[in-house]
Design a protein that fits this description.
By secondary structure, the protein is an alpha/beta fold. The chain starts with 6 loop residues before the first strand and ends with a strand. It is built from 12 helices and 22 strands. The protein is globular. The chain binds flavin-adenine dinucleotide. Residues 13-19, 36-39, 43-45, 49-50, 53, 119-121, 145-147, 165, 186, 273, 277, 309-311, 316-319, 321 line the site of flavin-adenine dinucleotide. Flavin-adenine dinucleotide binds at residues 13-19, 36-39, 43-45, 49-50, 53, 119-121, 145-147, 165, 186, 273, 277, 309-311, 316-319, 321.
Length: 463
């Protein structure tokens, strides 16, 4: 008897932010959907990215609260400084991640999506093979949502002694000192949070200034504040070799310097997860970075194969992957062609101080809109007036004089910067002009009120 291969309307490869959303929405539109996940459901964001990281950022920020509390009349117990109990933080964090994983799984089940805990590859343009079970499944449509994996850089001697951010979440103890290589947001976030938790951090970056692509004023100020807070930042250098010496690692830098560290973390960026999936054999074109090439509807060079999220290397953030997954499902199964607008995506770097940004940075804005007004507020937050905490808040608003004073960008360094960018992002999507901010009454006393009380430009370009 010949057994017929089973068939689904949609096969999703990867159960992360983009894949899970696409699967649920497509099933809601009536499609028969199967989703394969090789690891844990939830993907990078839930299991080893945004969420566990943010929980650790929260842990790290108590230090400042302890510091400031005394000036507000709190008498901290007589037995010395508060101490972090790493196993408790790890246990509670991991418990919350497992709970969220369960929520994702339940969401898929409720939507009627079949979850296959296996690694999937393309056997041909319409067939997926599960590598564990060996089963093959035919699919009318295939969605590649396999995300990205950490890049570990060139194969320097001792590279196996360096960890990626994935491994950091498994560290059994907080290191006394750590060397972090990288200057992007993941390197910066882990440098800040580890330093506050009690690790002596050396950040090694081959460029001159961290956070390439962000607004220059924020880059400069954050780097200076991190250094003032005790993070050693070594620029213009990279890690050339790592050796194991006793329980520690001896790290040799390209500038000839050596340093000893309990842990070495490489955060050099992430590469799209396309290797070994059988994509090219199926006719799916990849770009020079091995990301799946897609059109505005996330369709690849093979019309019934789509890709969303980090594997397409557009804007590698969770809300973008989620929106792309949703738009794909609406387009293909909901009869509503939807292209994702990748402009004006607000984002945050959860350093301390926190960085938030939406729209163009000053250099980008100036290149496109020469009649640019730059409004700046830099001030000591009210909370620091009693405690003397040295971090200042910095806010910058970019306004196009030539076009009805339209707001082109907003950038901030300071507490709750990410929260503020979410709301300024709405205003900017609605086409906010400076006059709209001026017409809005302040919430007093807050730091956010500065956005609506900026009066005089700090700089006027091309006057
Ligand atoms: P992923 O979430 O990576 O999901 C891909 C899934 O596919 C994985 O679960 C993987 O196991 C699975 N998979 C891969 N190959 C196969 C296969 N062949 N078969 C079956 N399954 C497979 N973004 C933010 O917006 N805010 C943040 O604060 C933030 N912080 C981050 C911090 C860190 C440390 C990292 C690493 C990332 C962070 N990101 C953040 C980025 C965010 O996590 C990603 O942009 C997002 O997870 C991308 O979603 P995705 O669906 O494309 O891929």
């Amino acid at each position: 008897m010949i057994r017929r291969m089973r068939e689904v309307d949609l096969f999703v490869i990867g159960g992360g932010s983009g894949g899970v959303r696409a699967a649920r929405i497509a099933a809601g539109h009536g499609a028969r959907v199967a989703l394969a996940e090789a690891d844990r459901v939830g993907g990078t964001c839930v299991i080893r990215g945004c969420v566990p990281k943010k929980l650790m950022v929260y842990a790290s920020r108590f230090v400042q609260e302890f510091d400031e509390a005394e000036a507000y009349g709190w008498q901290i117990g007589g037995d010395g400084d508060p101490r972090l109990h790493w196993p408790t933080l790890k246990l509670n964090r991991d418990r919350e991640i497992a709970r969220l994983e369960g929520v994702y799984e339940a969401g898929l089940a409720k939507a009627g999506v079949e979850l296959l805990r296996d690694r999937a590859v393309l056997a041909d343009p319409h067939t997926v093979r599960l590598q564990g079970s060996g089963e093959t499944i035919r699919a009318k449509h295939i969605l590649v949502a396999t995300g990205a994996a950490p890049l570990m850089g060139p194969a320097i001697p001792g590279i196996e002694l360096a960890d990626s951010s994935d491994a950091l979440f498994e560290w059994p103890r907080l290191p006394l000192n750590a060397a972090i290589q990288g200057g992007g947001y993941i390197a910066v976030e882990f440098a800040c949070l580890l330093q506050r938790l009690g690790t002596q951090v050396t950040l090694v970056y081959r460029g001159e200034r961290i956070l390439r692509g962000f607004d220059e004023d924020l880059r400069q100020r954050l780097q200076a504040q991190m250094a003032a807070d005790g993070i050693e930042i070594v620029t213009g250098a990279s890690v050339e070799a790592i050796e194991s010496v006793g329980n520690a690692r001896l790290v040799t830098l390209s500038n000839g310097r050596t340093l000893s560290a309990d842990e070495v973390l490489f955060a050099l960026g992430r590469a799209p997860h396309t290797a070994g999936l059988g994509l090219e054999a199926a006719g799916v074109q990849l770009n020079a970075r091995c990301a799946v090439k897609v059109d505005a509807y996330s369709r690849s060079s093979v019309p019934h194969i789509h890709a969303v999220g980090d594997v397409t290397d557009r804007i590698n953030l969770t809300p973008v992957a989620v929106r792309e997954g949703h738009a794909f499902a609406d387009t293909v199964f909901g009869g509503r062609p939807t292209a994702v607008d990748h402009h004006g995506v607000p984002s945050a770097v959860f350093s301390t101080p926190e960085l938030g940004t939406v729209g163009l940075n000053e250099d980008e804005a100036l290149a496109l809109h020469p009649q640019l007004d730059v409004y700046i507020a830099e001030f000591r937050p009210l909370k620091a007036t009693l405690s003397g905490h040295p971090h200042k808040v910095f806010m910058k608003l970019l306004v196009d004089r030539a076009n009805d004073e339209r707001v082109l960008g907003a950038h901030m360094l300071g507490p709750d910067a990410g929260e503020m960018m979410q709301l300024l992002g709405v205003a900017m999507k609605m086409g906010a002009r400076k006059a709209d901010l001026d017409a809005t009454l302040a919430v007093h006393p807050t730091a956010a009120e500065e956005w609506v009380t900026l009066r005089t430009p700090a700089r006027r370009h091309n006057t």
